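example protein:
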Amino acid sequence: MRSILAVVGVGTLVIGAWKLVAGNPVTAGSMFVFTTLCVANLRSETVRRWMDDHPIVVLIALIPVAVVGVVAAMP
């Protein structure tokens, strides 16, 4: 699980940086939210425990972030 979080964190960081350079700060911001959550989950036992105990809250919070990021990426 930790390796998946690391891959997702690095991947969203790279895509966020690319979108920021390409001039799409909204999509970059949504990618950086995912990166931040991955890093927090990897580094903090408290965050990991909270996210494991509240998966629905995490999902409800991430759905709008993902939708905004995808909509902003569309031409």
Summary: The CA atoms of residues 56 and 62 lie 10 Å apart. The chain is about 90% helix and 0% strand.
